[in-house]
Task: inverse folding
């Protein structure tokens, strides 16, 4: 049989999924049991789960994290799907929840989506800010250099501090002498 056109399904290993979901083996196996899922084995005899199975496990995990109990997670709306070569009498049944959004934490999903959208909407500004933080005066656009020069010259003192200091000291000394004469 030619497998060139067969569908290659992504295989998820149990340990990776347990880590992703933040669960231990006890919870993992309790979820599998409730969902009626049996892990597949690859050519090397290592266990893996299909995308559909992982989706069900993620849904039950979200249900439990939202405060639900494992045995309250709905298992209904069975879809019968025939496996390759068995398009007749026999079918393999995958259990999926009636509504795929059941048990999902909308607030968490909304916040996560908002974060991603916020990053997307501010990506340009973030890059501009990062570029600006790395620029020196020499890197500035000529128009911006002119603005910087204008602000610097406007804020720079336009006087001779030595002359002003001499003038102030002279007035002080005159005042001191007048105080001595009147005393």
Result:
């Amino acid at each position: 049989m030619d497998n060139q056109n067969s569908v290659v399904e992504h295989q998820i290993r149990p340990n990776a999924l347990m880590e992703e979901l933040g669960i231990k083996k006890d919870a993992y196996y309790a979820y599998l049991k409730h969902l009626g899922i049996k892990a597949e084995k690859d050519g090397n005899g290592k266990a893996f789960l299909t995308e559909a199975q992982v989706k069900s496990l993620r849904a039950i995990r979200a249900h439990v994290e939202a405060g639900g109990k494992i045995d309250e997670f709905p298992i209904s709306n069975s879809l019968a799907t025939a496996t390759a070569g068995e398009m007749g009498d026999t079918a393999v049944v995958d259990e999926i929840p009636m509504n795929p959004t059941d048990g999902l934490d909308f607030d968490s999903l909304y916040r996560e989506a908002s974060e991603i959208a916020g990053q997307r909407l501010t990506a340009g500004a973030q890059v501009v800010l990062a570029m600006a933080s790395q620029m020196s005066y020499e890197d500035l656009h000529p128009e911006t250099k002119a603005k910087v020069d204008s602000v610097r010259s406007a804020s720079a003192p336009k006087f001779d501090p030595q002359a002003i200091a001499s003038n102030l000291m002279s007035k002080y000394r005159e005042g001191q002498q007048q105080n001595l004469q009147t005393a």
DSSP finds six helices and four strands in the chain. Strands lie at 40-41, 47-48, 76-81, 92-96. The helical segments are 14-21, 25-35, 51-65, 106-133, 142-155, 161-182.
